[in-house]
Amino acid sequence: MSDSRSGFTITEVMIAVVILGIGVLALAGGAAAATRMLGQGQRTTNAAAVGAARLERLRRAANATNPRCSSGSFASGNATTNNVTEAWTVPTTGIARTVLEVITYKKYNGTITDTLATIVSCAT
């Protein structure tokens, strides 16, 4: 009579558990990186929206007066909105003025500074 048993040895089971554990750790690391990137994308989108809104307010202020660009609201300044620090520069002369908006916001391991620009026509 032969003694043939079916099943796995303890060594095979331990190797399978180690391989499974490595796979689960890789998935967890990937999920953490994806979450971090999603958060950074949200912060970048928020900062871009804040900057674009500021440029639009400046553009409206420039067009609200006659002659154009003579409004007191169409001037350089700075502010902090929704955890985004803004500093904008408005030239005081010229028919076409290049308005610069520098936005600074937090990154998961530091800060990021971006610059937005638009040209505002001051010709009547």
Largest sheet: 4 strands, antiparallel
Total E-strand runs: 4
Structural class call reads alpha+beta
The helix content is: 40-55%
* Annotation field: number of helices: 1
Strand content: 25-35%
Strand order of the largest sheet: 1-2-3-4
What separation lies between the terminal Cα atoms?
Answer: 107 Å
Could you give the order of the helices and strands? HEEEE
Radius of gyration: 29 Å
Write the layout of secondary structure elements.
Layout: H1 10-63, E1 77-81, E2 84-89, E3 96-107, E4 110-121
Antiparallel strand pairs: 1-2, 2-3, 3-4
Describe this protein's structure.
The protein has about 120 residues and is of the alpha+beta class. The protein has one helix at about 10-65, and strands at about 75-80, 85-90, 95-105, 110-120. It has a 4-stranded antiparallel beta sheet with strand order 1-2-3-4, covered by helices on one side. The N and C termini lie far apart (about 105 Å). The model has no long low-confidence stretch (mean pLDDT about 90).
